[in-house]
Amino acid sequence: MVGQNPLKKLLLHLALLIVVVLSIFPFYWLTVMATRTTSEIYRFPPELTFGGELIKNIRNVISHIDFFGSFFNTLFVAVTSTLLVLFFCSLAGFAFAKFEFPGKKILFTLMLLTMMIPHQLSLIPSFMIMQKLGWVGSFKALIVPGMASAFGIFWMRQYATGAVHDELLSAGRIDGCGLFRLYWNVALPILRPALAFLGIFSFIGSWNDYMWPLVILTDPAKYTLQVTLSQLNGIYNTDYAMVMAGTLMATLPLIVIFLMASRQFISDIAAGAIKD
């Protein structure tokens, strides 16, 4: 960007600043509402500064629902399903990218076509399958169907096509590596930036999933966080300050996970750029 017009540079930074503010403001507003009372939330003009009701609202959340039980349920499901997604999607994506086998193009095309099917259309068939397997009401019904995704395989295949060079695989074969060792010892370390992104994407998707846990879970002790938080909405009136506090408590782990994984994602990309 040497010699760039200073005015264009200033406008670019100003545009980026506006985008950052617009991206952060919803979380800031959520935090503000979580520190206020419901009557203060309805006030006009709205208060844009933090209040002093956060601890009280958090106590109300904990007293109304089993927050920590559902939190650990969600954490278990999200971590387990994310690890399975990373393994199976990276393995399948690597195979599609670097190996030739009969029906490869047809299988890949059919897999991509499944991405065009709305998730809502699969709810009833998926529930019937879970019922036949006897998994209704269990965590297996949340984890097993989501242990691989068409998007994850497509993403890993696209990344592996350009990042994993054929020369490295040839050298691995000369050293006596089989197919799985080529994946585990040669390809997997190179795929770390793509795995970091897919891990963030899958974890957030599993953490925020509401519809499928609502359909498949029957025991309140096994409810995930999103299903449990929906119980904060009253029939005749709703304490929105308490709802916002619960939402804030459920959002904070996602921010921590995102910051940790994105740092790994950026550092791996930077390391790869230096090596290249």
TrEMBL record:
Pfam families listed in its UniProt record: BPD_transp_1 (PF00528)
Localization annotation: Cell membrane
Membrane topology: Multi-pass membrane protein
Keyword Cell membrane: yes
InterPro entries xrefs: MetI-like, MetI-like_sf
Domain ABC transmembrane type-1 positions: 71-261
Transmembrane residue ranges: 12-30, 71-94, 106-129, 135-155, 182-204, 240-261
Coiled coil: none
Keyword line: Cell membrane, Membrane, Transmembrane, Transmembrane helix, Transport
Protein family per UniProt: Belongs to the binding-protein-dependent transport system permease family.
Protein's name in the database: Carbohydrate ABC transporter permease
Protein source organism: Paenibacillus gyeongsangnamensis
